[in-house]
Specification:
single chain; alpha+beta; 3-stranded antiparallel beta sheet; 5 helices; 40% helix
Length: 194
Amino acid sequence: MRDLPIPGLFAPVWQKRWERFASDKRGIAAVEFAMIAIPFFFLIFGLLEVCVIFIMSSVLEHGASEAARAIRTGQFQQAGFDQAQFKNDICDELFGLLSCDSKLQLDVKTFSDFAGAGNPDPIDPVTGDLATGTFAFSPGAQNEIVVVRVFYEWDLIIPVMSAPLANMSSNRRLLQATIAFRNEPFGNSSATGT
């Protein structure tokens, strides 16, 4: 059957050229790579994005934990520091990986018991932005329960591929660190030296 020429436009010369072209195996790796390149790069860049988010979340958690220690021990309250100083303390622990501009927000509240220490979702469901209207800064006194929440608006690196990771508007992801603790019984005796 292969020996018969293809009727119509193809003469036996064209048929032989077509058979040679169809049997040629050169360049097959390039063709196969072209077929898998898009899913391969999608997977690699998506994995890199998830890794970066995880690392930045860990850095934010570390900074919040280290800075909250001064509140827990009473050093922060006894020194009379304010929210700006607490934000600086957090920024000092971020290893320069996260900027300390308006993207970093704080919410420090005191509660009477751990059961009542619930906090609402900080993302406005209508606008998709961070709703800071209920944020406060109250480091509390001795033996009070304190919840420190630190938020960072992370701009996703790969716009189209990272869309499933965005939980805010404008292709951003809200990174959050939360630390809940009871302040130590620091009192005023150490501040007065008695």
